[in-house]
Amino acid sequence: MATFDWGVSDEPAAPTGEPLPVEAADLPEVTELQSEGWALAPEEPMWVFLPAIWPGTHRAWVADRSTRWVENSRDGVVLDRAPWPADLYEEIESDVNALLAEAGVPPRPAGRLWLLKPPPVLTSVQDVIDQVIELALAAGSELVPSCNPEFVRHAQRTVQELFGR
């Protein structure tokens, strides 16, 4: 049976400050953690479960005080941009949690940016993702790489094997 751990009681890896008008990757605490070998967890829908299956020793979080922008453009030229309104954040989080529920994963704690470290046998989080996909697409596999129960279980087994658990 799959178990999921969002590290709800884990302390943040950096102190919380005021919101900043920068992307998540440009937050000072994120750039510092990246210099120590951490990588932001992917936010693509098919990977939103990844922090919940990653070993707690190789997973950290910081408060999301970044800004996401809505841009209006024409012919590739940005005409204006504005921060996402609060209701859009809530809608996105609700959509993510609905996707997680469909995959059998409990809702994630809101307002966190997740950072991951790869297992000692690989050099990056992307290497882990590549291994998960490669094994899912192996000959004879019927797994569909997306946030669904079968793929999540496959990813969890693969991550555990890569971390030697």
Characterize the structure shown.
The protein is α+β, with helices and mostly antiparallel strands. Helix content is 33%, strand content 15%. The chain starts with 27 loop residues before the first helix and ends with a helix. The mean pLDDT is 93.
Summarize the structure.
With 165 residues, the protein is α+β, with helices and mostly antiparallel strands. Helix content is 33%, strand content 15%. It has 5 helices and 5 strands.
Short descriptors:
single chain; alpha+beta; three-stranded antiparallel beta sheet
Distance between the termini: 15 Å
| Class of secondary structure makeup | alpha+beta
With helices defined by DSSP (H or I, 4 residues minimum), what is the helix count? 5
How much helicity do the residues have?
A: 25-40%
Helix/strand order:
HEHEEEHEHH
Please state how the strands of the largest beta sheet are arranged side by side: 1-5-2
- As a percent range, the share of strand residues is 15-25%
Compute the number of strand runs.
5
Query: What summary fits the major beta sheet?
Result: 3 strands, antiparallel
What value does the average pLDDT take? 93
State the shape: globular
Radius of gyration: 17 Å
Unreliable stretches, pLDDT < 50, 5 or more residues? Answer: none
List the topology elements.
Elements: H1 28-35, E1 39-40, H2 50-53, E2 59-63, E3 69-74, E4 77-83, H3 86-102, E5 112-116, H4 125-136, H5 149-162
Antiparallel strand pairs: 1-5, 2-5, 3-4
Helix pairs in contact: 4-5
